[in-house]
C-alpha cells in the first residue's frame, strides 16, 4: 500500500502539546513522526509517515485536536518508501492476540478525503486549459465520426475532460459542498455547450453524405448502455479514490461521454433531427448513470464530511440527489421504450 507524509507546521511554543498528542495516537495508527525547526526560528515542522489508508483518520483527529487556525498548516504528499518499514503485519498479529483488543476506526482502503478533494478539484475548475482540451477533443471527435475511424474517436475520448466535472458534482453532493457543486455544473455546462456548438457547426458546414457505422452506433441507446455507464462510472470513482489516474484512461473510453454528444451536434447540423435526439439520449444516459453511480460509490467508500452537522446536510443532499438521478434515469428508460415501440 502507498505511503503518505503529513507535515504539520506549528508555532514553537506548541511543540510539547503537539508532540504529546501525536505520541498518544501513534500506537493506534502505526505511524512514525519527528520534529524539525524551521528557518524563521518561530515554527516547527512535524512530519508523520504512515500508510495511505490511515491518513484520513489521522487528519480528522488532528483537525479535532488542534482546531486549525492561521497559525497551523498541514500538507500531505506521497512517499515512495520508508526504512525501517511500517510493519503493519506485526501490529495486526499483536492486536489479534490481545485478550481485549481496542476498538479502532476501520481503515479506508483509499486516499484521504482532503487528498481526494484536491485531486477532483483540479479536474473540476473551469480554466483556459479545460476549454482548449474540449475544443481539441471535439474537433478530433468530429473528424473520427465523419471518417468512421475508431482509433481517432478513442483519441477524442482520452482527450476529453468531461469526466472530471461529473466526478466533482458527485463528490460535492456527498460532502454537501455547494461551492464545488456550482463550479462543477458551470464547468460541465461550458464543456457540453462548446462541444455541441462545434459539432453542430461542422454538421452544417459539411453535412453528412451517408450514415456510417460509428455515427449509427451513437444514434441509438440500448439497455446494455445503461449497465455499461453505471459500471464504468463506479470504476471511475474508485480510480479517483485510489489515487490511480492511469486507470481513468480506460474509464474515459468505456464511458464514452464525448462521441454521442458530438454525434448529436453533427446530426442536428445536418438536419437529421431524429438521429440527433437518439445521440442526445445516449449522452444523457451516460451522464445520469455516471452521477448516480458516483454518489452511491462515494457513499460506499465512506466519503462524508467530518463534522456531524455537515454529515446531516450531506445525507439529505445524497438522498435528494440519488432520487433526482433515479427519476431521470427512469424517465430515460420510459423514453427508450417509447422510441423502440413498433
Automatic annotation (TrEMBL):
<feature type="transmembrane region" description="Helical">
    <location>
        <begin position="188"/>
        <end position="206"/>
    </location>
</feature>
<feature type="transmembrane region" description="Helical">
    <location>
        <begin position="251"/>
        <end position="273"/>
    </location>
</feature>
<feature type="transmembrane region" description="Helical">
    <location>
        <begin position="279"/>
        <end position="306"/>
    </location>
</feature>
<keyword id="KW-0472">Membrane</keyword>
<feature type="transmembrane region" description="Helical">
    <location>
        <begin position="226"/>
        <end position="244"/>
    </location>
</feature>
<feature type="transmembrane region" description="Helical">
    <location>
        <begin position="130"/>
        <end position="146"/>
    </location>
</feature>
<dbReference type="Pfam" id="PF04087">
    <property type="entry name" value="DUF389"/>
</dbReference>
<protein>
    <submittedName>
        <fullName>TIGR00341 family protein</fullName>
    </submittedName>
</protein>
<dbReference type="InterPro" id="IPR005240">
    <property type="entry name" value="DUF389"/>
</dbReference>
<feature type="transmembrane region" description="Helical">
    <location>
        <begin position="318"/>
        <end position="338"/>
    </location>
</feature>
<feature type="transmembrane region" description="Helical">
    <location>
        <begin position="152"/>
        <end position="176"/>
    </location>
</feature>
<keyword id="KW-1133">Transmembrane helix</keyword>
<keyword id="KW-0812">Transmembrane</keyword>
